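Hi V.,

You were right to ask for the full record rather than a summary. Here it is.
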Amino acid sequence: MELFRDVEMPLLAVLAAMERRGVRVDADALARLASEYRATLAATESAIYELAGGPFNIASPIQLREVLFDRLKISAKGIRKGKTGFSTDVDVLTRLAAVHPLPAKILEHRALAKLLSTYVDPLPLLIHPETGRIHTSFNQTVAATGRLSSTDPNLQNIPIRTEDGRRIRAAFVPEPGKVLIGADYSQIELRILAHLTGDPVLVQAFTTGEDIHTRTAAEVFVVMPLTVTSEMRRRAKVINFGIIYGMGPQRLSRELAIPLPEAQRYIKNYFARYAGVTRYIESTLAEARRQGYVSTLLKRRRYLPELGSPDDGLRSFAERTAINTPVQGSAADLIKLAMVRLEARLPREGAPAAMILQVHDELVFEADAARVEQATAIIKEEMEQVMPLAVPLAVDIRAGQSWDEVH
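Predicted structure:
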């Protein structure tokens, strides 16, 4: 009832206000991007046809299979085979890219075509004729973890790490005389994991401000933190986030492109060093099996009847969900609570800033350029103090002239 009364119901008004405000988009910038992407797509298509030894329908899995495995004779060893033939999904093409240049070009083509059809072409058509802004819809009751989702358009799926995705974000801009402020919870799920598990190594790392991925690399690879290489840190980052999502050694082996025994050793070392995480997983699964659900910090429940399923696949999925939901769902709870409080506090303190977007762990505001410091201070304080945890919450915050600049 507290979650319903103090978070979800007040959030209704917050989301309604955000939907009404919308976000300004530079239609001219998107038009320039569209023509550039079309030219790049055409060049990529030509390169694909050349590598394939002739034209074919790139969007057809059947034709792509024929090109890869029959015409080019690429080995299909270890690739999943369904009713219609070998898979040509992202995982498969990523693996095949190591032995032939064509799969990499196919992935490049798919990514660009998706950005063009999902964002670059449709976004200008969604600009409201009266406001000149795009008004997405936020959904409270779609994601089972309690996370918000966004539709018409979905603004939560624009790729963050690719240059093309960043260029789309750069088209989201403030009104003249204003700036955008981006406030992003830093590693919130790992901090919540530290709180839930009480693991002394995790808690100490976050309390002292240590880089958690470097610390995990030191623990897993049994080296001193000062000798951790960038590759070790990259691997540790995959392990850290993989543990939250119940990643097993097979998946880790694929993600890091390492032999299975090596992946098994990494995971074994992780659980040996982070004993609190091991205990948390065991106790969470036992409790979930006993009561039939798991809960977040604010007591949001997720029922998991599949935990008793005789089907190994269904049961494994339910077990991973049981481990992940309290972490991801608690992160959703915290940011929702921060949104409710900020929507009340900013106008109360006379700060000319309005919340316009929420994307998972990130909030975006539009603020008067002359008063940005006041707004930034309030946003950071409210988000970092939203709930007392065993470790400090940290928010990365910056202001700029586009969504890309502030992310």
